[in-house]
Write a structure and sequence with these properties.
It is a single chain. It is built from 4 helices and 8 strands, in the order ββββαββαββαα. With 156 residues, the protein is an alpha+beta fold. It has a single domain, classed as Nucleoside Triphosphate Pyrophosphohydrolase, CATH 3.90.79.10. Strands 1, 4, 5, 6 and 7 form a 5-stranded mixed beta sheet that branches. The longest helix is centred in the middle third of the chain and has 13 residues. The chain is globular, with a radius of gyration of 15 Å. The N and C termini lie far apart (38 Å).
């Protein structure tokens, strides 16, 4: 396995409410398997699956709705390494390479984190600054890059 294959392909979504752009708060969810870890919805891209297909599938699996509109896409893949407490369960991968999207919930969308296999125990809409303060330390650089980009583009 070459080094680039050691990073699991993944899609991640920064979800804004249906009140966007008037209200620029973003969805953040608390993981149910890691103490006090808050994150954006994200998930692996299956073999042969298009990135946008994975985006809609993961949203449905994690927050109970895929009723969103894609607003923007982060222009590149971005990666991070797993901390040792997570790496054991993710072998053979040492981290994830992610494609980020900014998505807006449709007015009719209803969030339900109590899905078939729940990954989250709580959620809230927060400011960019709050999201950065609440994010897991091993994802902080990724979150700063992605949120900084969308902010610079005038989207957040």
């Amino acid at each position: 396995m070459i080094k680039k294959d050691l990073y699991r392909p993944n899609v991640a979504m920064i979800v804004v409410s249906s009140s966007y752009p008037r209200v620029k708060e973003i969805f953040l969810a608390q993981r149910n398997d890691l103490n006090d870890v808050w994150q954006f919805p994200q998930g692996g891209i299956d073999e042969g699956e298009a990135v946008e297909e994975a985006l809609f599938r993961e949203l449905l699996e994690e927050i109970g709705t895929d009723s969103v509109e894609i607003i923007a896409e982060f222009p590149e893949w971005i990666s991070y390494d797993f901390p040792s407490r997570i790496a054991e369960n993710m072998k053979p991968f040492i981290g994830q390479k992610q494609k980020y999207f900014l998505v807006k919930l449709h007015e009719s969308a209803t969030i339900n984190i109590h899905t078939h296999q729940p990954e989250f125990s709580d959620f809230k809409f927060v400011t960019v600054e709050e999201a950065l303060n609440m994010s897991a330390s091993f994802k902080k650089n990724v979150y700063e890059s992605v949120l900084g980009y969308f902010k610079k583009e005038g989207l957040l």
